[in-house]
Amino acid sequence: MKQIALYGKGGIGKSTTSANLSAALSLAGHSVLQIGCDPKRDSTRMLMAGRLIPTVMDLVRERGASAVTPQDVVFTGFHGVRCVEAGGPEPGVGCAGRGIIATFQLLEKFGTLTGDIIVYDVLGDVVCGGFAMPMREGYAQEVYLVTSGELMSLYAANNICKAIQRLAARPKSRCRIAGVICNAKNMPREEELVAEFARRVNSHLIQYIPRDRTVQLAELDRKTVIEYDPASEQAQRYRDLAARVMENSRLTIPTPLEIDDLESLARQYV
Amino acid sequence: MTSNPLPASTCRTAGCTLTGALSVVTQVTDTVTVVHGPGGCTHHNFSLLSATALDNGRPALPPLVSTDLRETDIVFGGEEALDRTLTRVMNGNPGAIFVLSTCIVETIGDDIEKICQAQQGCPVIIVPTAGFLGGSFQAGVNNALIALAAMAESSAPNGRVNLIGEKNLEYEVEENYAEVSRLLSLLGLSVNLRFVRNITTDEIARLGAARLNVLRDPALIPVGEYLNSRFGTPYITGFPIGLSGNSSFLAEVAKTCGINGTDAVTRERAREGELLEKFHDLAGEGVFFSPLPPDPEGRIAARDLARNVGLRFSDQGNPVPVPVIPPVGLAGTERLLHRWRRAIFA
Ligand code: SF4
To answer: pTM of this prediction?
Structure first.
């Protein structure tokens, strides 16, 4: 079983990428579980025909953990992709990080964490130990960074490298960086920049995904691109990504950049 | 806080902020204290407080209630749990409710003030504790004393003296109190309020009536300052420590209160002399302190006392104990000398 996590700056398109990746993986014949780890709970929406499924944390809050069953939290979406949303507290109260930890422990207890591949779609930044949870404890062993060529999203990706590097130093940790996905903003020389960034942090660019109107259209139709327009070029990009993820065995410990180096790298590609 | 882990060096007055504040507020007998956090924070403090009460010969269960937060409260916020607990406690009609926070609720950011303000029935007083954020045991004590003092109105002066911040967790708290009131009586003064030891909310009203505040130790200066600015009461810092502490205490009280204390001081000096005389058999014996007290004040007082009775310091001598908290007044000094004599001639 492969366990991968997609991390990256908020708003960079992790959920879109995750959902399309899961859909493509499923169509390729794999059994897929996608877990949204953001309190916003919009990770699996396009796989569920636009439906916001109940979250683990909402149910735990309403009924208490002991009254929640696997059937309550695991939903089957497009082409059999199993979908879970961790959820979390209302913004501004409580501890969402602890919520992530509690969710994983519950899913583990249920025996839900099975399949050929689990895709963890994790909140924008690793803000605390709670959000690093999928990387810790051997849940997500392969981390993919989703970034565009914009400085801010590279900055977030670089930060996540720091987290992986730190966690990788733990004796039993199996958490590694598996690659960088460029979810482009269609800036000039963007692919080159992100590829170079990936190389500098001791990883590689695994897939370039151009910005494409089809994504918006699919979203308005409450579908993944894979489902909405399987013949499109964009859908092919996601299928390529899925194939590469399944083949990928290049797992490394990242070497995050200093801020100055990151900035001068970005400057070279302006 | 002592970092020496030897059992003999452990000190009850070195816990977390919460412990410090609880050692004060649980002495207001007609109140209930709500500790907002996981049950454990309350439990170990509860054990400590009840064990201390038992040791001091007045078995009593401290009026402590925990909001008993569980994982779901931590994830979603503990405000509801606090609200529920306060409503339940309110039903028992306490004189006041104190609300203390713990590490975890400061981490998750509950709005304790909002919840407390919404409660009606009796005063609900937030005592800043905040576990790791609050700092030390002493900060807890100070914050609790200031929060309690805020409940008092100014009242007509009655010429008596307040004792501020007695160490409720120390073994000798009553003996120390007796010693200090004895000394005050030599100057014709009496105790107005033990702030805070075994009092009710009503009694707090007397706080501002005193002519002098005697702080238990110098770490309480912020409390002394607060009371001074609120009620204009002057303060002196510290109970009398070690030999000759008594006479200087008397002199200081007399001076601050504008009383002639010469006579009292002379009489007390004579008593000190008599005490040393009682232990003249110790002169010339070799001793070393074991374990060394972590508190420099205690070390200085013990060294001073040893010199005065003619003890010699030597590594080959007898190990003699030194208490973590230095002895108060002549009674405390005498007690310590008895222990030394036992150690030397054992
Ligand atoms: S408040 Fe913090 S330090 Fe104090 S007992 Fe609770 S967890 Fe421990």
So the answer is: 0.82
